[in-house]
Design goal:
By secondary structure, the protein is of the alpha/beta class. It is built from five helices and 14 strands. It has helices spanning 36-40, 106-113, 145-154, 199-205, 223-235; strands at 9-11, 13-24, 27-33, 45-51, 62-64, 69-70, 78-89, 94-100, 119-126, 135-141, 160-167, 181-188, 215-222, 244-250. 38% of the residues are buried. The mean pLDDT is 94. It binds flavin-adenine dinucleotide (FAD).
Length: 260
C-alpha cells in the first residue's frame, strides 16, 4: 500500500521552484510557487520534504488526519528538514526560503542544485516561538536570519533591544529592517568553522539584563551554543519559560534526521 491508497491519508502539498538567487555567498534564496492554501501552510517554521538531488521521481509520503507522516514502504528518496519561510504571500501563491549552503546534507545539496521546476514537499508548519515584548533579545547564526528577519519585521515600532547575528564575515550580512530601538549587531567568526565559535554565547554573556521591563529572548543556532546561551539566560538573567525560546537549529557533526 502507498500513502495515496491509505484511508484518511491526504497527499502532501508539493511546491515548485520558480526562481533561485544568491542572497550572500553562502545563502541561497529559493522562491517556490503553490496554491494559496499550500503557501499559507508553509510557515513560518516549515517541515520540508526534501527529495534526493539525483532522484527525479521521489515517492512522497502522505499526511494522516492527526498530522502524522505516513511514509511509503521501502526507499523513498525524501528527507525531512526544518526551515523558515522568510516571506509568504498566499494571495500570490509564493513562498521564499533561504537555505544556508553549508556543503553537506540533503537539504543543502538540494538547494545548491535547485533550478526552476524542481519540487519540494511540505509536511507541516509551526510558529517561530516568539512573542511581542517591550525589550527583545534575539541571538542566532545564519540559519536563524530568516526567523530573526520575520521577528524584527513584526516587532512594534517602540520595541527596544538587540539582535546578535553570527555569520562568517561582512559579505554574509543581510538587510534586516528593525525598529529604531533595536540594534542589529553582526558578529564575524572569520576563519572559525560554523558551530565551533563561542562568539554568540560570549556576546550574550556580555549583556546585562535590562531592569524591570517586559522582556523576551529568542535564540536559535548550533545546538551546543544554544545550550550555553539558554543556561546563561535562565541563570544570570533569571528568565522563566514564558520569557525565552531557545532552540538548536542544527547539530555539529550530525544530520538533523535520517535520510530516506
Ligand atoms: C525550526 C528550524 C528552522 C530552521 N530554519 C532554517 C532556515 O531558514 N535556513 C537554513 O539554512 N537553516 C534552517 N534551519 C537549520 C537546518 O534545518 C539545518 O541546518 C539542517 O541540518 C540542514 O539540513 P541538511 O540536510 O542540509 O544537513 P544535515 O543532513 O542535517 O547535516 C549534515 C551535516 O551538515 C552539518 N550542518 C547542518 N547545518 C549546518 C550549518 N548551518 N552549518 C554548518 N554545518 C551544518 C551537520 O552538522 C552535519 O554534519 C532551521 C532549523 C530548525 C530546527
Amino acid at each position: 500500500m502507498t500513502p495515496d491508497d491509505a484511508p484518511d491519508v491526504r497527499p502532501v502539498d508539493v511546491l515548485t521552484v520558480s526562481s533561485v538567487s544568491d542572497v550572500t555567498p553562502t545563502v541561497r534564496r529559493v522562491v517556490l510557487a503553490g496554491t494559496p492554501e499550500a503557501v499559507a501552510a508553509a510557515g513560518p517554521t516549515v517541515v520540508l520534504l526534501v527529495p534526493r538531488v539525483d532522484d527525479p521521481a521521489p515517492r512522497w509520503p502522505g499526511i494522516a488526519r492527526d498530522g502524522r507522516i505516513v511514509w511509503p514502504v521501502g526507499t523513498h528518496g525524501v528527507s525531512l528538514r526544518s526551515y523558515t519561510a522568510r516571506r509568504q504571500h498566499p494571495a500570490d501563491g509564493v513562498v521564499e526560503i533561504d537555505f544556508v549552503l553549508h556543503g553537506d546534507g540533503p537539504a543543502a545539496a538540494w538547494a545548491a542544485a535547485a533550478r526552476p521546476g524542481a519540487l519540494l514537499g511540505v509536511a507541516g508548519c509551526s510558529p517561530l516561538g516568539d512573542r511581542p515584548a517591550r525589550h527583545l533579545l534575539l541571538a542566532g547564526d545564519e540559519t536563524a536570519v530568516p526567523a530573526i528577519g520575520r521577528i524584527l519585521g513584526a516587532a512594534g515600532p517602540d520595541t527596544q533591544g538587540v539582535a546578535l547575528v553570527e555569520v562568517a564575515d561582512a559579505a554574509e550580512e543581510q538587510q534586516l529592517p528593525a525598529p529604531a530601538g533595536v540594534a542589529v549587531r553582526w558578529l564575524h567568526r572569520g576563519g572559525t568553522p560554523p558551530g565551533e565559535s563561542t562568539l554568540l554565547a560570549d556576546a550574550v554573556a556580555a549583556l546585562d539584563r535590562p531592569p524591570g521591563v517586559d522582556l523576551f529572548a529568542w535564540v536559535a543556532a548550533e545546538s551546543a551554543a544554544v545550550r550555553t546561551i539558554r543556561a546563561d539566560l535562565r541563570g544570570r538573567w533569571g528568565l522563566g519559560r514564558a520569557q525565552h525560546h531557545a532552540i538548536g537549529y542544527w547539530r555539529r557533526g550530525r544530520a538533523m534526521s535520517p535520510s530516506g
